[in-house]
Each structure stands twice: as C-alpha cells, then as structure tokens.
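hi support,

uploading two proteins for the ticket. first:
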Amino acid sequence: MTISGYMARAVALAAFLVPSPAAAQDAPQVTKLTNHVYSVFWGFYNGLVVIGRDGVLVTDPANDNRAAVLKAEIEKLTDLPVTHVVLTHEHFDHIGGTGTFPDAVIVAQDNIHAVLPLDPLDLGPDKIDVTFDERHVIDMGTTKVELRFFGAADGVAATVVYLPQDGIAFAADIYEKGRLTPASFLEDTNMLGGTTNSQ
C-alpha cells in the first residue's frame, strides 16, 4: 500500500475513532486513585491526571473534544494549570488535543520523531518539548512520575507511566493482559500513515 493509501485509510479511521461529544458517553468517569492521582475516562479513552505541587500532568488528550472535557474535569479538581502532557505513544488517536494546554511541556519517547512527520491529519503537536530514550523522571512535587520505554508495543514510542510512590503504572493500548504487546505481533504499518519495522 502506498503512503497516499495509508493516508486515506487513516482519514477514514479518524472519522470513526475521533468521537464527537454526542458520540461519547454523557459524563466523564473520574476515579480517585490517590490523594493526587486520578483516572479520567471519556470519549472511549482513559487518561491519567497527576496533581502536583505547582501544576498538573495529563496523558494522551487524544483529540480536541476529549481535551476540552479533560480540562473541565481537571478544573473541578484543582486551580492549578496543566504543566505537562505525556504522550504514551505516537498514534494519531492519542496525540491530538495538546493545543488545549498551550503552556504545557509535551513529553514523548524519542521514537516519536520517526513517525510524527507522517501525521496525515495534522493532529499532533507542533513540537515535542522533551524526549527521552529509556527513562525520564518528572518530579511533580507530590510524587515522581517515571516514564519508561521497554521497546515497541502498540507503536514505536510506547511509554509506560510509572508512579512508584503511589504503586501506579499506566499505559495505553495494551492488548495482552499484564504486559506490553510483543513487537513481533505488530503489523508493519503505523497508524499515523507511515511504515515502521516492528521486528
């Protein structure tokens, strides 16, 4: 399949995967995990919200609709601004909506640069502020957030968000219970529209 074929496929998938507010469930499901960590599920996506001493960290805004709902839910929890957005991987249905948090630092694993320029829908952030190879730590004041890369999973920049002090690990699109999807099971097409070698 050609790049234009992948782009057409991605556009068709986006119409299905990027939900409108009417298509999503009525109310976000906010679950308190600790005194400063929450899970927010809405628009068919789950995300982590970490309230720090001076700001808030969120994962995968996904799209503009979900990011607006996420922002509204965060404002119910705290007056602090969103200072960090962590992208768990490079797929277009996770990387949108970062513009809702214009002052936030966007963080992703290094391999995102190999795929992000191929974004056929231009959903991704204009720039990634911080990238890392295998490990990156963000000290939120209330807890430390460790970002870990163990290899390709659902995408080449798959990141596990680990909060050791809280006993919480978060990752998106894990298809096998209890572990990252082995790279050998991945297709060789990346859903941003480009091709990747997953072996």
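and the second one:
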Amino acid sequence: MYNQGAVVLKDLRWGLIPFWAKDEEIGYRMINARAETLKEKPSFRSSLKRKRCLVLADFFYEWQKIPGSARKQPMCIRLRDQEPFVFARLWDAWKKPDDAEVESYTIITCEPNDLMRPIHNRMPVIVKRENYDQWLDPKNEDVDGLAKLLVP
C-alpha cells in the first residue's frame, strides 16, 4: 500500500470491515470479494476507488471437491517458476467503539483460468508486476481501468 507516496509493508486483518460497519463481525463474511461486482457493492466501492493494496505470496491453497464424497482435497497452487507473486486486495480502516483502529482487507477473486478450473470455480486475482504501480496508486480513481486488471 502507499503511504504519502511510498510503498509500505503493513500487517492487516484478513476479512474486510468497511469504515461504516456497526461491528467487526462483518469481516468474517468478507474475506474474499468478487472482481465482477466490486463497483456495485457498497462494501467495496470506496476501497476500489482509493484503498487498494497487494498480498505477497509464494503459494495458496484451494480445496477441490472429491467426486462422490463430501470431502475436499487441499491443493497447493504456485507459479510454474515458483517465484513469489501478489494478490489484488482492498483494504479499509474501521474504528472500534473504544476508538482503536482496525485495518482489514479482502482478497479479490475472479473466474478461474484453465489450470484452476478443474480445481475450483474461483481463484485469487494475481497482479502482473507491470501493473503494481497502477493498482497501488491512490490517485488513480479510474475504476473501469482498474477493473481490467482483475482477470485470471
């Protein structure tokens, strides 16, 4: 995320709590956000416009349904070259009743690519290196242009 023009690394709580939330329980239901509906959803509109950040990872897990069973198989997903990558995410700051601030985030998901399709019906958006600055720049409020980055 940017702070006064510089990229900073911060530890945020997973599960977005919008600034207008009545309590923090909403965050448990907002760990992921669908790329296709970010512009319409009140929970994400403001953050899409001004509060975007990235999550650094070298892999993620997805759970594949096992045919004929209620069980799911965990699948570890990483890039072919095994290099680290980043997920697109949105963040917000919420004030607790005691005025303590909680900064939280949600990971943006999209339709799966060909690799992920047999495993799960969604995948996290992985931002290409050449798009980091465009995604992180808080002065960039072109939500239509930003939405074009949110692809498998």
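thanks. also noticed: The longest strand covers residues 85-95.
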